[in-house]
Design goal:
Layout: H1 3-18, H2 22-32, H3 36-46, E1 54-61, E2 64-71, E3 79-83, H4 96-110, E4 113-118, H5 129-143, E5 151-156, H6 158-172, E6 180-184, E7 223-228, H7 234-246, E8 251-256, H8 271-287
Parallel strand pairs: 3-4, 3-5, 5-6, 6-7, 7-8
Antiparallel strand pairs: 1-2, 2-4
């Protein structure tokens, strides 16, 4: 990789994780726009429209906006709760097309409906805002009559960490657990020595509800944890998966050699992204008990 691109990527990660000023973040993102992966994602999003056989409904619950995506022939009662990435500082509005594409993909490979939560973000809303909103969304699904065994949590980057944190909270508070968890490039360790991510706020960064790498995973449902072999958050997934395995959890952890952070979002153009989604498809349909042809 070109050293300048590597530097831009490093600066961008720092800006996103620690809440750099908008002007700095904007200049950095403009520079990194030369990176072919970023450009490809931009092109995929720019050229995408919601397929005619899918619907998008905006749902608002207690001031929190959620997006409900489903196909006309959606299987009754099966839902994927999607928690988006963005370092806990970027809302769904900032990355909407990326996660609508992902929502349709999840729906397409599973036949389930997909609920994506526009949870509150830092620095205006640090911990526990995102966690509270994720729990709210799950409780809303339960209140609508969806059974826990027919709900899967899925998330990437910060959303992947939030998936794990939400499940930790549910278990610790004797709430029913979802059927399974899916994480892509999960950000599970916010406990840095020199800088504290804005999401941490006034809490401790080693709080398992903030940094799930410190969590104890007994009683967890099956988990699929994907990560790129070349990304900075590689150990976040590997160490968390190891902790879960030690607690007796069924964990399917896959590292995709040479892949970068949240490479899955470059489907259908990137072969490794397609392979990752194929793995997700098999996992989901094994959980839901219906292997699709």
């Amino acid at each position: 990789m070109d050293r300048r691109i590597a530097l831009f990527i490093a600066v961008t990660v720092v800006c996103c994780l620690f809440g750099a000023p908008h002007s700095v973040r904007s200049r950095t993102l403009q520079a990194i726009g030369e990176n072919r992966n970023v450009k490809l994602l931009q092109e995929l999003n720019h050229n995408w429209t919601l397929p005619s056989d899918y619907s998008l409904e905006i749902v608002e619950v207690n001031g929190i906006t959620m997006e409900w995506v489903q196909a006309v022939d959606t299987k009754p009662g099966k839902v994927i709760l999607q928690l988006h990435g963005g370092a806990y500082t970027r809302s769904l509005k900032d990355n909407g097309t990326t996660y609508r594409r992902a929502a349709v993909k999840y729906a397409e490979i599973s036949g389930a409906a997909v609920l994506t939560v526009d949870y509150r973000v830092a620095p205006q809303n640090p911990y526990p805002a995102a966690l509270e909103d994720a729990v709210l969304a799950y409780q809303w699904l339960l209140d609508q009559g969806y059974r826990p065994e027919n709900i899967i949590f899925a998330g990437d980057s910060a959303g992947g960490g939030l998936v794990l944190a939400t499940a930790l909270y549910l278990r610790d508070n004797q709430m029913p657990m979802p059927a399974a968890l899916i994480t892509m490039s999960a950000w599970t360790n916010l406990n840095y020595k020199r800088m504290i991510p804005s999401y941490v706020g006034n809490d401790r960064a080693d709080n398992p509800y903030i940094s799930p790498i410190y969590g104890e995973y007994h009683g967890f449902p099956p988990m699929l944890m994907q990560v790129g072999g070349a990304e900075v958050l590689l150990n976040d997934t590997i160490e968390t998966a190891q902790n879960a395995v030690k607690a007796g959890v069924s964990v399917q952890q896959t590292t995709y050699p040479g892949m970068f952070h949240v490479f899955q979002m470059l489907f259908p153009e990137l072969p490794d992204a397609n392979a990752a989604w194929n793995e997700v498809e098999v996992f989901i349909n094994e959980i839901f008990g219906e292997i699709m042809d």
